[in-house]
Structures are given as structure tokens and as C-alpha cells.
Amino acid sequence: MNRKVRVGVNGYGVIGKRVADAVVLQDDMELIGVTYHHLDYRIRVAAEKGYPIFSSSAERPLACETGINVSGSLDDLIKGVDIMVECSAKGVGAANKRLYEKAGIKAVFQGGEEHELAGVSFTAQVNYLEALNRQFVRVVSCNTTGLCRVMNAFHKRNWVKRVRAVLMRRASDPWESHKAGLINTVVPETRVPSHQGPDAKTVMAGLNITTMAGTASHNLSHIHYAMVETTRPISLNEVRQALWEEPRIAFVNSNNGLVALNSVIELMRDLGRPRNDLWEVAVWEDALAVDGHEIYLVYQVHNEAVTIPETIDAIRAMTGIETDAKKSIEKTNRAMGIVKSFLPRTMPEEAEHQALGRAIEATRKGFGVWNENDQPLAIPKTAHNDP
Asked: CA–CA separation, 126 vs 244, rounded Å?
């Protein structure tokens, strides 16, 4: 394809508005339009941004009388795009699949739909090649995306014997907290395993994982507690380096004031992130631990934001404009501002991990020397790692 990929977004809610903004940032994609399901401030923001607006169905009244210029219906939008990103409520995407089949266009579905709808469930760094030139792909849910990113760091190294993870979900999205939400309680999910573990297996073949889940009375993202039984003893530094080398994972530390979900979101605000979005999975580095054949870790998954870069990469894979996963991930990261280190000027994490990587490689070759704190002596002391 020698031109930009023409993208439509069906639904302009929590995910749809973020996908639309991300598409606009890409130099190989063009946003043809977004659809509205409700005539409220959200679609007015899209109009203010200059996004072409379409009605989600022919039956919905056009919004011209409200001051919004409506370009047509969903059927009209379908005629002008190469690929549609379905961001409607659960089940609507499945119902719309027949429209995309009839028109011969491609479609990305969200994690609320079943795996069987598309046949490919997607996380860019795990199975990008499976999505190449496919007509339909499903980007897995926020929780499953977080699981796949983190566990891929271990699974691809053949370290994983079994994963056990507990997922504490947020009660509601911030924008609709006035409608429903838990107060002063936690509700356990009574099905074991929870659906996220089996869902991760649709992306990562051979992953042995069991998940449990619950919902708590907060709305600032999810938190996961994971215990990974390993195939051999893994050092703490090997764990740190594996996570550092994995795309879209960034470390946070409680000794830096990042002690909870809200403080990490506050960091995103202070960094000027749009909508306070945390596109990376934030792993508490000072909570990492190992014990023989076990790895323990805790990390934050921002339900509103974490799947957005995956959607952009899915568009590239499906349309074939980039066949290399690494190149697509790096391109998306640059365009959106996704990083490995949130505070690189004052915390030299990159230099530290370069030294750590060299020391681990030297150890594999039999030349490394480690101290009693599991620190390779080759690592220079810095404010970040000096005990």
C-alpha cells in the first residue's frame, strides 16, 4: 500500500476517542471519521478537533440541528475506509462484523468480544506475525494485555513453569463513576480461573497460567499481583533486565513517592500525558522479589489506555504496511510518546540496565562476578541503584 491507511473508528467512548487521537499521530494512517452513539460532550469534542462525524446507524437522528456537522451514517463511513476499529459496547462489534464482511474491509475488535469472532487475539510484542494481512483481529482486554506484556518477558526465555496472578480491577471508568461504583467494599469474582488467564493463552501459546480476580472501590486502573514458578532459579537482576528489555513496560519505585495507583496516575498528569494516560505497564521495581524457583511482582495496568498502542500496531499488521513487529512497536511508541523511563534526566535507568545486561551476558559466559546482594560488580553505583 503506497498511501496512508484509511481508518474509521466506530464508537467514540473511552477507547474510541483514544484510538482516534492515536491514529492522527501516525504518519502512515489517516482518520476518515468517527461515529457517535450519544449526542453529548464527547462527540462535540471530536467535532471541535475537526474529526469527521458519522452516525452509528441510519436510524439514529443526524445531529445537524445541534451544531454538529454530520457526514453520514456508519454505512457511509464503511465505504471510505480500509479498516474499521470497533470501539462499540460489547456485542455490538460482533453484530457489525457482517457489515465489514459484506464491504470487504478489515476490522479490529476489542477484548470484550470473544476470541472466536476474529480467530486471532493480539498483543503486538507477542504475536504480531499472526495478524499480518488478516481481515479480522481482536485486541485483547486491558488486563489480558498487561498479563501478556509482562509474562512474555519470562515466557520467551523459557523461564515459566506456572503463573498464578491475582487481578484487582477498578470499579468503573472515571467518566461514569457517578453512574455506578463500589463503596467501601471489594467484590471477589467467584469463577476460577477468571477469564483473563484463558484469554492470555489465546495470545501466548503454551502459557501455564491461573488467574483470580476481584473488583475494588477505586477507578484509577487495575493492579496485578503475580507469582511465577520458574523452570530454574532466576536471579533478581535477571528478572529486572528481562522486564527492562520488554517493550511497553516501565519501572516505578515507591521510594520515589510512587507508592500507589493514584501517585502513578499523578505522575502521568505531571508529565503532561493526554488524559493522564499510562500506556506502559508500570512495574514496581522495589517490589520485585525472587525465592528459588519463584518470581514475585506487582504492576499497574491502566484500563483506559494500555490497549491503544496495540490497536495501532494491529492496524499496521493487518494492512501489511509494516511486517516487522519491532519496527511497528518503535514507530507507535515514538508517535505516542511511550517510554522505558519516566524520569530519564534524573534517573539513569538506561545506562544502569546497559551495564546490567553486559554483566548478565558475561556471567552466562562464565566471566561475571556477583556480590552478596545479587548485584553484578560491573554495574556503576548510581543514585538509582546504590543501596
From this structure: 16
Grid coordinates representing 234 are 532466576
42: its cell numbers: 464527547
- For the question of residue 148 being annotated catalytic, the response is no
pLDDT number for residue 363: 80
Tracing cell 508529565 back to the chain, one arrives at: 271
CA dist 375 → 9, 15, 293 (Å): 48, 42, 19
Confidence of residue 208 (pLDDT cuts 50, 70, 90): very high
Interval 158-194: pLDDT, tens: 999 999 999 999 888 887 788 877 889 999 999 999 9
Say how far apart CA 31 and CA 312 lie, in whole Å.
12
4 and 28 Cβ atoms separated by less than 8 Å = yes
Q: What is the structure's pLDDT at 177?
A: 83
Which class for 225: exposed (0-12), middle (13-18), buried (19 or more C-beta within 10 A)? middle
Q: Using an 8 Å Cβ cutoff, are 1 and 8 in contact?
A: no
Q: Are strands 160-169 and 209-216 parallel, antiparallel or unpaired?
A: parallel
Examine the pLDDT at 64 and tell me if it is beyond 70.
no
Residue count of the chain, please give it: 387
Cα–Cα distance between 56 and 320 in angstroms, integer?
28
Instruction: Give the whole-angstrom CA distance, residue 188 versus residue 47.
Output: 41
Encoded amino acid at 96, one letter: N
Which residues lie below 8 Å from residue 364, measured CB to CB, with a gap of 6+?
none
Give the end-to-end CA distance of the chain in Å, rounded to a whole number.
Answer: 53
Residue 377, exposed/middle/buried by CB under 10 A (0-12, 13-18, 19+)?
exposed
- Written as nine digits, the cell of 208 is 501455564
Where does 104-166 have alpha helices with state H? 115-118, 124-127, 142-155
Q: Which domains does the chain have, with CATH numbers?
A: 5-140+307-336 (3.40.50.720), 142-301 (3.30.360.10)
Residues 6 or more apart in contact with residue 146 via CB below 8 angstroms:
222, 224, 281, 299, 301, 306
